[in-house]
Amino acid sequence: MSMESVAWDQLYRQMHANNEERPLRMVTAKRIFEFAGGHHRRLLAFLVFSVVSAVLAVATPVLAGRVVDNIVNGSAPRTVVLLAVIIAAVAVLDAALGLVIRLLSARIGEGLIFDLRTAVFDHVQRMPVAFFTRTRTGALVSRLNNDVIGAQRAFSSTLSGVVTNVVMLVLTLVVMLRLSWQITLLALILLPVFVLPARRMGEKLAGIQREAAGLDARMSTQMTERFSAPGATLVKLFGRPTRESEEFAARAGRVRDIGVRTAMLQTVFITALTLVSALALALVYGLGGWFALSGQLEAGSVVALSLLLTRLYSPLTALASARVDIMSAMVSFERVFEILDLEPLIKDAPDAEPAPDGPIAVELDRVNFGYPAADKVSLASLEDVATLDARGGEQVLHEVSLRAEPGQMVALVGSSGAGKSTIAQLVSRLYDVDSGAVRLGGRDVRELTGRSIQDTVGLVTQDGHLFHDSIRANLTLARPGATEAELWDALERARLGELIAALPDGLDTVVGERGYRLSGGERQRLTIARLLLKQPRVVILDEATASLDSTSEAAVQEALAEALAGRTALVIAHRLSTIRNADQIVVLEHGSVVERGTHTQLLAADGRYAELYRTQFADDATPAAA
After folding, report:
1. Host H or E run for residue 363
2. What is the pTM of this model?
């Protein structure tokens, strides 16, 4: 490696280092090596081959010096040829070792990336919904990408680099001191001129780089939000394209200016260090040549010293920044471990059992619940805040009790924020109650396996989500092994069969991000088709028909009536006309049950339900009368 390459490497490390000052935590180091335990054999082989490669790197300049000495001393050609063959053999062996080291490095590095990514991905999937409502998606994805790769470098680059550089440095110093201690000491004196500017310039460039990264992140956020279907629509509706372009151009212009400044600083720095390296070589040739002409040093030793000079500067420079590399890797590991250390609030009990067979009753028994505080489900770094919001945990349900017998439909009505959707999430066990119990088939949901709850309970929300994938893929989330006939049957029952059949790609039609290639009603009916395909024993409809027009709602209500037959149902409804025939209507206000009964009974009681009913139908009657 040339001195210019060494300078670039040092500068790059300083620029891209995470310069947070924090102590080296042995607990973190122990966890890192425990995590890498599955790769210990490859790691050992990697280090051994790296050490051998370092020895070969020092051997080549020494052999080159011997060749020069033999030529100057008029040795037999055979000796020179033999040394040349040895140099060639060392080069071939070093090349072969390089391939083996690279293979091991790739397998270790990619293996660690795989282990870390799958561990984080699997762990994040077990986190509660509250975690996702607070976390910035981009920050979470960054943990799976940037931080995982930064952690991987600790083994594939930093660890082997430290070992290799220590071995190379020791061997190089021993050889150089034996050849000429005077030249060696002078070369070491020049080292601070080489290293210190790199550190200072690197820190300066790191600050510029962080500013550029922040601007890039803000540009990415702006593009992500504005290029989505709802974001683009919002910009167009409010007539803001020019303002958006100006904001984007301002950030992009700042990034451009930073790029020019960075390029010039790098060029000045590298030019200066290249000059220093040239002066160091001039010193070796000048002083070494003087020693050689005065008979104090062999000519071959001068050549060997000049070749060894880069092998002295390279490991010294790398080791000077080794702490930066190690701390950067430690920071990356700690950021990954932060995610893994977040405890999922919902976990299967050790003795959890499947949900009971047959028809299922749903019961809430004196349930009290408050959404968890931020420090229980999130991290400040994932929310892009200095400290987490200390608020949270306020009780939103108070002593709520209700029961839906097998095959019954129980409707939940009330004002916004009354706690209706919260009950739906508790029955699905997206959250656990603070006190009281939620039971399925007489069993507390905390005693059941998560898988059996998912199979038992089907939930359709007002904003049913669709992935940017085909209709087939979005449907088979409910039942991966569903046949073609079953898929079409679910679509027919959701009144979507004709529409999907008319599409050029049929079931393989891609619905777009969040399903925006479909209309609101079509998107909602597709989520209902997914529910029909799942065939759960308990169905929860959370404003499932709120976004449908009257025609679509009537069609879907027919499909839902068929789907709900024989199943236990909780229906959260804003349109009271859709739940007149419910077996029981539960009225919630401020997290408490204020009324319950049938439609007729509640109207006769002339309470909160009757007030909601009169208000809604008075509003509906006005346009009808007109």
Report:
1. strand 362-370
2. 0.69
